[in-house]
Amino acid sequence: xxxxxxxxxxxHHPKAEVHxxxxxxxxxxxxxxxxxxxxxKRAGFTDFTEPPAFDIxxxxxxxxxxxxxxxxxxxxxxxxxxxxxDVLPMSFPYNPRRAKPxxxxxxxxxxxxxxxxxxxxxxxxxxxASTAACALGTVESVAKxxxxxxLIRPPGHHAxxxxxxxxxxxxxxxxxxQALLNKGMDRVAILDVDSHHGNGTQDIFYARDDxxxxxxxxxxxxxFPYFWGHKDEKGAGKGDGYTLNxxxxxxxxxxxxxxALLDAIAKIRNFKPDAxxxxxxxxxxxxxxxxxxxxxVEDYPAYGADIAKLGLPTSFIMEGGYGVPEIGDNxxxxxxxxxx
Length: 340
Ligand code: SP5
Ligand code: ZN
Hints:
The chain is α/β, with parallel strands linked by helices. The chain has a single domain, classed as Arginase, Chain A, CATH 3.40.800. Helix content is 34%, strand content 12%. The protein has helices at residues 30-42, 65-80, 105-111, 124-143, 172-182, 199-205, 254-271, 299-308, 326-339, and strands at 2-4, 17-19, 22-24, 148-150, 188-192, 211-218, 243-248, 275-280, 314-318. It has a seven-stranded parallel beta sheet with strand order 1-4-9-8-5-6-7, with helices on both faces. Strands 2-3 form a two-stranded antiparallel ribbon. Strand 8 (275-280), helix 8 (299-308) and strand 9 (314-318) form a beta-alpha-beta unit. Helix 4 crosses helix 5 (172-182), helix 7 packs parallel to helix 8 (299-308) and helix 8 (299-308) packs parallel to helix 9. The protein starts with a strand and ends with a helix. The model has no long low-confidence stretch (mean pLDDT 98).
């Protein structure tokens, strides 16, 4: 399996995160890649492929032009306003958003954001273009019938068409799915196994019937992103029935999690997709510092093997997973279980 990776992720390095009312070192930072990479190497993955060139047209139909322009210019505007730190949105639209964002950068940042855990730094765009390019690399493999992994950070599944959220700025899984359709595929399924609901991916494809989105996650009454991921969110218009949510209680262990996975896999099989995109978050692990599920190291290869039974060329896109060395073992474990 090809693994697309570049050091460009280092260019996205927020300095601090507000967490439970205190400033802390961000959970999502370059140190995550060290942990992921070490686990990949322990598992015997030693061959990493540089991504193809970033082609900005890959964002067409995924993110809006206004949002892309905001992301590209936000840090310069923040600096011009005289602010020293990273772009950190603080004011969010409670009423429906108006047609245009406020002019002042503080207001614009909140307009294009849904949670104050997501920062933009001076060089974030370099990292973001490369994460998207790694997603496009997996698409080249999948179009040839091969599966591949984008070993990337920051993650993407909370980012919607025109908002950042949950450490996510560009939605790499949505970029991969759209690129597969652009290559002539008729139907693509996205399976989101991150412990958090993939609200951004859901929103992007909510009214469409060419992308089936299925997400297993902590139920919204107790889990970020809180305002999405209920069972009754099923899609809209011709997309009705093409969004599948599996909200699970805090403390869910593997057997119950796997039951939900097998149901999602059966529905993906019925959809008859040409390819699969997996939003591969490993924050389902029992010792993840910000999540609540109870998966163990041996569960990751087990569910990788379940996903493989679909027999689909698969693009694995790295999402969440924090703080502990096992995030590398667990990401690698899914790929090994899938491949063996
Ligand atoms: C990609 C991904 O995994 N993003 C996660 C973003 C989480 N952001 C923090 C939100 C605050 C949640 N409060 C934690 C309380 C735990 N019960
Ligand atoms: Zn997550």
